[in-house]
Automatic annotation (TrEMBL), chain A:
The keyword Transcription does not apply. It catalyses: (sulfur carrier)-H + L-cysteine = (sulfur carrier)-SH + L-alanine. The keyword Lipid biosynthesis does not apply. Belongs to the class-V pyridoxal-phosphate-dependent aminotransferase family. Csd subfamily. The lineage of its organism: Bacteria, Pseudomonadati, Bacteroidota, Flavobacteriia, Flavobacteriales. Its EC number is 2.8.1.7. Keywords: Pyridoxal phosphate, Transferase. It holds the Pfam family Aminotran_5. This is Cysteine desulfurase. Catalyzes the removal of elemental sulfur and selenium atoms from L-cysteine, L-cystine, L-selenocysteine, and L-selenocystine to produce L-alanine. Residues 24-392 form the Aminotransferase class V domain.
From TrEMBL, chain B:
Belongs to the SufE family. Residues 12-130 form the Fe-S metabolism associated domain. InterPro entries: Fe-S_metab-assoc_dom. SUPFAM superfamilies: SufE/NifU. It comes from Flavivirga amylovorans. This is SufE family protein. Pfam families: SufE. It comes from the Bacteria.
Amino acid sequence: MFNVQDIRKDFPILSRKVNGKPLVYFDNAATSQTPQQVIDAIVDYYSNYNANIHRGVHTLSQEATDLYEQARHKIQAHFNAKFSHEIILTSGTTHSINLVANGFSALLKKGDEIIVSALEHHSNIVPWQMLCERTGGVLKVIPMNDHGELVMSDFDNLLSENTKLVFVNHISNALGTINPIEYIIEKAHQVGAAVLIDGAQSCPHIKPDVQALDVDFYVASAHKMCGPTGVGMLYGKESWLNKLPPYQGGGEMIAEVTFEKTTYADLPHKFEAGTPNIAGGIVFGAAIDYMNSIGFDAIAAYENDLLNYATEKLLEIDGLKIYGTSKNKTSVISFNLENIHPYDVGTILDKLGIAVRTGHHCAQPIMDFYCIPGTVRASFSFYNTKEEIDALVEGVKKAKMMLL
Amino acid sequence: MTIEDIQNEIIDEFSMFDDWEERYQYMIDLGKDLPLIDDQYKTDSNIIKGCQSKVWVHAEMKDNKIAFTADSDAIITKGIIAILIRTFSDQHPKDIIDADTDFIDKIGLKEHLSPTRANGLVSMVKQLKMYAIAYQTQLN
């Protein structure tokens, strides 16, 4: 049974104080906190298994290799990939996206089109701009409406035989909107385009099934799913990963090297040059185990409850406006108080021990759309409570009183 | 008054407050009282980079002293820049260049000194001193 008080005991950081007040951590969309089980896995790896992998004949290296490959299998199972070699371990979502963008620079020609959405994080815009600069490709943008939803009729019109790749986040980091990726994938495939979905914000809340989605590429970061920083994954369909050239040269990614010619290793190693983040990869597996032990259905139900509660309570504050009002959204609330800068609100909340994010959330085009400098963003996780939301609401009221 | 005198005066004022709330309230009030900058100076070239909120600073030389005016779209940031301007305005460039800013720590606003801090207090001090260096060069 889902019991938030029991779950909170797993997270040592939740009992610390900030500025003399109990920490209320509502910056989960930036990074999630780490349960003891995951911390233990880090300690266990360095205490008992630390060795370089895939090369050593000695036992320690074999054991570390087994753990690393087991983690890959766990990730495969979690995302329901067909093969474990379709899971490439990377340093995180940004690395995964750049890997695909770099690969497509070999496949694109002048006039080919890439479609991204207006809801993207900067790291989802810049690699494609760079790719278009290199290849003469054209970047097209799916617009959004006032609710922070993508306009699908405009997407339909953007698609053509020139479309080679569609790139959309599963969930918007700035607004929390859940995008209709099933529709996007189906439509993109009808014109022969590949689809890359950024799951950085979705994987902490839902368990995507890459085969059911029929998605070509799906990327995520461990640190947003109770795992460590500096590790993430790229899922790619085998056929696509075979088509893309290697990203970086180095150890692990080669089959044979002479000065005349190098042949590349098979998947997944072709894309994993150099010594990988071994501890990170193994612990990513432990984080997935932890989240599955809570259960994604329970997580989604509970977080939805928190979202509804917080939305209702915050809207009771006069002059508070929420940005991102799609019916289909996750537990992220982006808001502003009338005539008050989000930075000021964030500063007062911090003095009260409440961690929120302020600013443009690396999504300036969204802020430009609403003509605002930024928002205050509170993002909730399954270990947060309604009492903490009450503290946030009181904090916002206090900030309003002090700042107006 | 010298820069040091002004800083001591500010330290005295802040020492009356018992907790962060009173300190911040005072700083917010200082921000509200900051004389308005002439709109013609609220240009992109006068924006201090490195702040999450926008901060505009304008400097003018009068009788070998620099007069600063400033504004911000965030009120706490405006309070911080108001404190800095009170310290540095109507002072000789050389005195501004030589001044230290330890008083920020002494008035209980140490957290704003961290370079990771999005309000860019460090950037503000740097920008004010850059103006002083520029005007000092003219004087030499």
